């Protein structure tokens, strides 16, 4: 097995600082995007309900038309 490479303390500090900065940035970004995602899900749910209602009405009309033709 190869012995580990000695890394400068400056490089180690820079790497860990970048890691911590990335974690903090990710946490802040998630907190920023969470409310936007909730709003998008709410809007998508409303649109889906409206679309389902239109499909239900279309099927109901189609069923009534078929019964008239028979």
From TrEMBL:
Presence of the UniProt keyword Repeat in the record: no
Main location: mitochondrion
One GO cellular component, as annotated: proton-transporting ATP synthase complex
GO biological process entries: ATP biosynthetic process; proton transmembrane transport
Coiled-coil stretches: none
Pfam families: ATP-synt_E (PF05680)
Location(s), subcellular: Mitochondrion inner membrane
Keyword NAD applies: no
InterPro entries for the chain: ATP_synth_F0_esu_mt
Source species, domain of life: Eukaryota
Reported function: Subunit e, of the mitochondrial membrane ATP synthase complex (F(1)F(0) ATP synthase or Complex V) that produces ATP from ADP in the presence of a proton gradient across the membrane which is generated by electron transport complexes of the respiratory chain. ATP synthase complex consist of a soluble F(1) head domain - the catalytic core - and a membrane F(1) domain - the membrane proton channel. These two domains are linked by a central stalk rotating inside the F(1) region and a stationary peripheral stalk.
Subunit structure: F-type ATPases have 2 components, CF(1) - the catalytic core - and CF(0) - the membrane proton channel. CF(1) and CF(0) have multiple subunits. Component of the ATP synthase complex composed at least of ATP5F1A/subunit alpha, ATP5F1B/subunit beta, ATP5MC1/subunit c (homooctomer), MT-ATP6/subunit a, MT-ATP8/subunit 8, ATP5ME/subunit e, ATP5MF/subunit f, ATP5MG/subunit g, ATP5MK/subunit k, ATP5MJ/subunit j, ATP5F1C/subunit gamma, ATP5F1D/subunit delta, ATP5F1E/subunit epsilon, ATP5PF/subunit F6, ATP5PB/subunit b, ATP5PD/subunit d, ATP5PO/subunit OSCP.
Family that this chain belongs to: Belongs to the ATPase e subunit family.
PANTHER family linked: ATP SYNTHASE E CHAIN, MITOCHONDRIAL, ATP SYNTHASE SUBUNIT E, MITOCHONDRIAL
Protein name, per record: ATP synthase F(0) complex subunit e, mitochondrial
Native source organism of the sequence: Pagothenia borchgrevinki (Bald rockcod)
């Amino acid at each position: 097995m190869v012995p580990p490479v000695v890394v400068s303390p400056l490089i180690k500090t820079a790497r860990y600082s970048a890691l911590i900065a990335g974690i903090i940035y990710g946490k802040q970004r998630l907190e920023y995007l969470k409310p936007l995602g909730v709003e998008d899900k709410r809007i998508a749910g409303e649109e889906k309900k409206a679309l389902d209602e239109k499909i239900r009405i279309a099927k109901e009309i189609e069923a009534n038309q078929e019964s008239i033709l028979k």
